[in-house]
């Protein structure tokens, strides 16, 4: 590393960062008399004369990263190079995960970087469909690189002036899109949808029983929360963590395609009230994790208004559809919610993490969470300290999650997000149409997908003639895991599977990846057939 | 942008990334006949033929970032270019924070990146002392760039195999350093010390009253938590959020230099028990936020053992001293804690965020938080699913905070962290010695600092002759904010201030910045004198 090969112009043409190690010409014609030197961390800034070494080191890292990015979008690259935990722990050809007392050379650090990527998963690959967050947006990536370089903290305007304002403006824009008058209200970016949902429960409790903040749950009657049996498990996590108890979270029945049945909610609210408990919080999901179902928000809002219950909309996954004139009707009624979770890192393709909790009533976040730490939120600063947002948060330090999102919004415009979302939904309709009547495929529910989730079983030929029953179910339950394991081992594509209720393991295809095209959908279907045919 | 200036070799020599815009030669001798083209997001990958544009765009971003890094370490650069919120919101010369429907060109995106850094705060500047997290580690930065490029999620081995193993090995190493036998136990990286502390309270509750998870706080007697009056406000936030109520958090008295008085703890535990409540949790702080005090862990542990109370050590700030053979005795007894918070993003200089919660007993994190989401934690995967750690967390998606830390550990070795910590503590001793008897300076407490916190008042000449009393106190209270405001407006340095208890506003100097030297300490002292002399 860092050996000047003496033929900069030529190798620069190729790599944009001249170093002896990456220059082929150099390898062929080593410059006589120059020995490579080992560089260490202490050769980097802030050490004296560390500037050039720092620049070269960072450029070498960037060379590794850009080469990774380029290959990620190349369909001939594998999605992953699978190894079992024990294989990686034992060490792969010079890649040793163990930490030691003595420093490694910067040369070895670069090798470690390359190996870390080599044995990882390319979540930006056009054929990676495994999670709700997929894809690699180049502007978002640039935004995240800048964020790391700025290396600051969201708690005060003092040390994050630009980012704090970007957050404020972006949250306002999101509230306008939700439909709250003039974008009024409040909100904060949090480390993921689970924490955003936890905020909603905390704020709802504070709104009804503010004394819980000081006196604890003992100051409130027995409080009950409601959410769909298809909703995300974070609502359950919140009910456990915040002291409600999971038994006080009541699961609501859903229709065949996973949407809450409002009548079931009302019946359960009445039942709870008859027991003398207090129905406090309803979560309506806009885009469930597995089926992609949108609960009927307006009908749920009617019930919440009637019984004076906080309505939260978990749009972690489906919130992005608000950006699309064609699809936003699926969230009709969202403007009646008291709070909304919306994760731009899912359907909007923003790099991880980027999740917002939005609250209709101003002041609740602050009232619920503020503890007025004197060392951080001094009232006698020279600027308008209402911009110090940290005391609203349950975190103290808070990562800058806004910049990449703001930068992407600048680069795409609102219309760019809309195009991306419409394209993903078109692709999922294409997949649905392709497999709904295809031999060997069976849909988990019959109606068209509301979101990009397409849930299906692949039935291998050996099971196709079998009568329905326990044996077929048991065998079918094993099909998706087997195909998935083969997919991962061959590294060709990745898609999720799971059981749901009484339904045995099925594939859940989701599309949020901007790199995916119809040909990738075709590939996935054919790959499932190829791998599953003999099962 | 992206205009080939036709003189690549020359300008590459200068910038390592040839673009028309940054090449001075080009500006002087524009190549005739070539017009700059406006590039947009859709020219980048994954679009067809987007490879070259993507590479050039990213290299231009890197050019902005490396130039920022270089200037950050240059003492002639300002720490910040202060503007009030309304100024930035009104828009600064072409820097418009508002989001719009239509996309901006990539050229404008680069300008936005440059401006975002321009109006921000250089937290890596050698004279930035404002927070517990300061400095910019180049290897850590490279690690964070890689993390963003990998853009994955910690919840499963499936999509983060390497990172999950790195986390496991690093947590084990940290537990060994704490002194738990064979590094046994458990832990997780969380988004900041406040959440790590919240975990500790949750786990403590689960250990004593596991039924709270399902039945809520009503299933437990009245539970009481204890922490120092000097401890971090996150303990109070946790007691509010988790349903204990802040009134059930009892603040412990401290000695003159901010350490808990163990006898006060025991007296209060007895009092609580006499009332029939249950003392459940004691937080001992290793390195308080303002004074940098270390509570006497062994004496507190004796009391916790005697009364069967969970002992948590909040080492968010002071945990790093465990890496130093010279200073780790300040945490003597930490191995007796049931849980420990330790933020490598503070004293160890890891980029934000990187915080660990470590737990002595295995299984509690899982027991407390697991909800067994079928769509994520399938039991029938082909690999050993005990590596899927997501169900331990209160988050669902979890950012990869481990890689930058792991990579820094590789590059520095354990000894490198030790050197860094010893150097910071030496610098704070230097500051203490310099000002303890200096005219115009008065220490907030007399004894030598235990950590790098040095707390002092600057007394301007106009106040020096005044008798102690209300008027002097009121005037002195305004001195630190005024000096701080002038510092920020001149952009020369940044240091925090706050009141504490009955003590009026004083400066809290903290040193975690690896770029700081004695000359920067000298500068700070002289700058305070220069700015405060006329007050």
TrEMBL record, chains A, B:
Catalytic activity, as annotated: L-glutamate + H(+) = 4-aminobutanoate + CO2
A Pfam family it matches: Pyridoxal_deC
Entry annotated with the keyword Phosphoprotein: yes
A molecular-function term among this protein's GO annotations: glutamate decarboxylase activity
UniProt-listed Enzyme Commission number(s): 4.1.1.15
Enzyme class: lyase
Superkingdom as given in the UniProt entry: Eukaryota
Recorded family membership: Belongs to the group II decarboxylase family.
Its biological purpose: Catalyzes the synthesis of the inhibitory neurotransmitter gamma-aminobutyric acid (GABA) with pyridoxal 5'-phosphate as cofactor.
Protein name: Glutamate decarboxylase 1
